[in-house]
Amino acid sequence: MPQYSWIELAIMLFIIAGFAVVIWRGGQANPESTGRLGSRLTKVETKMTEVETEMEHVRDRLNDFEITLARVSDKMVTRVDLDNIEKLMARDAETSRKTWKAVERLEGFFIENAIKQRSGS
Fold this sequence. Notes:
By secondary structure, this protein is mostly helical. It has a domain at 77-121. 91% of the residues lie in helices and 0% in strands. It has four helices and no strands. The protein has helices at residues 6-29, 31-34, 36-75, 79-120. The longest helix is centred in the last third of the chain and has 42 residues, at 79-120.
């Protein structure tokens, strides 16, 4: 067996230890070799599938809501419609008052004429 000095043995031991550390850490640094990357990607894919399913459900509900809103808005009365109805009602009320006054005048005229005709005859 050849004679090595302690320094040479220390250097060889240091080099072998360095290789061991690099191989050991290299295996941990590569997540695919340990399966961590694959499991993480599977979890991400599963979560994305869940999110896509939920988004489709939300999209369907939003479409249903839009259809319902369109149906309701066709039947819904707006503030402008209410203002127009109030204006028409005010105009009709004024016409009714004028008509009632005209009827009262005519009634008074007919009553006066009837009284005059009975008194005069």
